[in-house]
Amino acid sequence: MGAQDKRRFSDFLKAENILCYPAALSWKEAIGQLVELLHKNENNFDEERVLAACLQREAASSTVIAPRLALPHARVDNLKRLLVAIGIAPKGVTFPVEERGLVHVVIVILTPKDDPGLYLQALAALTRELGAEGALDRLAGAEAPEEVFDFFSERPVALPPYLKASNLMDVRPVTLLEQDNLKKTIDIFCTRHVLDIPVVDDDGDVRGTISIEDLLRLSLPEHLLWMHDLSPILRFEPFADLLRRDQESKVADFMKDDYVSVGPDVPAIQLAKTFLTQDVRQILVVEGRKLLGAVDVGAFIAKLFWA
User: Fold this and answer.
1) How far is CA 256 from CA 50, 214, 259, 260, 275, in A?
2) In the prediction, which pLDDT does 67 show?
3) Between 182-192 and 212-219, two packed helices, what is the crossing angle to 10 degrees?
4) Rounded to whole angstroms, what are the CA distances from 81 to 72, 77, 98, 121, 272?
5) Can you tell me the distance from the alpha carbon of 216 to that of 228, in angstroms, rounded to the nearest whole number?
6) Which of the 8 DSSP states describes residue 159?
7) pLDDT tens readout for residues 131-163
8) Please, what is the end-to-end C-alpha distance for the chain in angstroms?
9) Is 18 left (phi over 0), alpha (psi -120 to 50) or beta?
10) Cα separation of 295 and 255, whole Å?
11) Label partner for 224 (CA 20 to 30 A): which of 47, 55, 58, 187?
């Protein structure tokens, strides 16, 4: 195993790139101060462009990944290595998605543009470490930069050597139970704006999937799909009939029992190949038959090329 496989988060952290904010401030001020600090101490990037990229990214999609924790980030041209700045805000920072509550730990991560997986590897390491019981409370309670630096120095927070399915999956995908009805299925498709939904049993084991196209198939008898001219049956109302049965029809009656799945340690490159060769929009991440998460092709592309 080479040196690249043993990178720790603390390898990229310096005590001088840590702030303890003395007063309450806005999310733009919090990010701005950390980017300014990195530019002052590293001086190898365009501060104005990087700040604009961080703010634009935050406004488009919140980086508040857990209660009290935000990870603003940007990919930077010609950057040679990952840069990290941490801000501790005892009085809290309000980020754009206010319902997620005040943020007390802000970690700005800058990565080389030509290393698209590096941010996701750092994110995986931080999520694992700060998800431990009491870890985030201790970090948020730090009163000096040295305490924050010691927090990470004491912990072997290793970056995964390569991107895995578990690093890219949605750990809380929208799901349906076998006993749910068609009405709930339609509601989810129309309000959650998803195209594919895994179906699980009461133990969380995968039983099948249902896609948005399956609703249309339910509405139309198969023989209609072979007809070129539908004008003789324009008054046919299959959709109305389907809706009349939406309370009685159970997901188990119309789901597909085939699905594409991988284990949590499958490399990201294998996911890309699977999307192309299997012609699917969603890959389920499972252990045995237990659903761990799901990777949708749109989110996969966004995380690799834009996140």
Assistant:
1) 46, 9, 8, 11, 18
2) 87
3) 130
4) 17, 11, 32, 13, 25
5) 17
6) P
7) 888 999 999 999 999 999 999 998 878 898 889
8) 28
9) beta
10) 19
11) 187
Tokens of 182: 């068609």
Tokens of 6: 């043993």
Nearest CA among 5, 283, 22 for reference residue 143: 22
Both tokens of residue 244? 């009349």
CB 167 within 8 A of CB 124: yes
- Is the pLDDT higher at 248 or at 26? 26
Confidence of residue 7 (pLDDT cuts 50, 70, 90): confident
Give the type of residue at 157: V
- Mode of pairing for the β-strands spanning 290-296 and 282-287: antiparallel
Per-residue tokens: 58: 């935050």
User: Which pair of structure tokens corresponds to residue 176?
Assistant: 């349906």
Which ranges of the chain would DSSP assign to H, the alpha helix? 27-42, 47-60, 118-130, 135-140, 145-153, 165-168, 182-192, 212-219, 238-244, 251-254, 268-278, 297-305
Question: CB burial class (10 A; 0-12, 13-18, 19+) of residue 260?
Answer: middle
Question: Within 13 Å and on the Cβ side, how many CA atoms surround 47?
Answer: 13
What tokens does 3 get? 């040196």
